[in-house]
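Weekly structure sync, notes
Attendees: PL (lead), two postdocs, one rotation student
Agenda item 3: pending single-chain targets
PL asked that the sequence for the first pending target be pasted directly into the notes so everyone works from the same version. It is reproduced below exactly as submitted, 239 residues in total.
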Amino acid sequence: MNCPNCKAKCKKFGKTRKGQQRYRCGQCLKTYSEPRNEHLDGMYTEPEKVENVIRLFVEGCSVRSIMRITELHPVTILKILVMVGERCEQLQEAKIRNVPVSDVQCDEMWGFIGCKEKRNVNGDPQRGDAYCFVGIERTSKLILSWHLGRRTARDTMAFVEKLDGATRGSFQITTDGFPAYFDAIHTCLGTRVDYAQLIKVYGVSGDDEHKYSPGKIIDMTVQDKWGSPDPKRICTSHV
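Predicted structure, written out during the meeting:
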């Protein structure tokens, strides 16, 4: 190995704690580590281990379970998951464009970041409730678009704009009764869709007030917003 500083020949100079070879320049006396192979955005983790992490995550294993199985640091595992998520998002946006569909269902999945919204006393926009809007094609179960944000009109509009770019032609769309859907779908999708809302009425739960799952469904109502939606296909069960 030649010295990166003065280009003189270096000699071996012991190893690091992880067994990486070190070199020392006989001319400028600087020490250097042996170059390491970098994979996947500068990561040193072998591609086989990265693939194993992804397989375990897809199977539903937690980060700590993956850590015990692969013996990787949890920060490394989280970096892998973030990298894979970003690349999957890029792939979806590039490939799922102008897909012909006939029946689309939309809904939101609730979650939280850092703390639940009522515990976010400082109003930090990076913490609190987070909703993942999802649009799925009923027949093929293909996820056409998704958007992570708050349950607001602005984020609903951003989600429907993505859905507009992912689909083409006329189709039927069903959502829940969230009011922001009406303006977003009317603005982005217009008259090329037959739109209906399926509104579920939940009973009051007598369980502990800290329970976050919804109560038992006691009634469902259907509202045709515009077009001619087929009553037999007004459904949000698949999504």
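Discussion points:
- Residues 47-94 form one domain.
- The chain has three domains: 1-36, 47-94, 97-233.
Action: rotation student to compare against the earlier draft before next sync.
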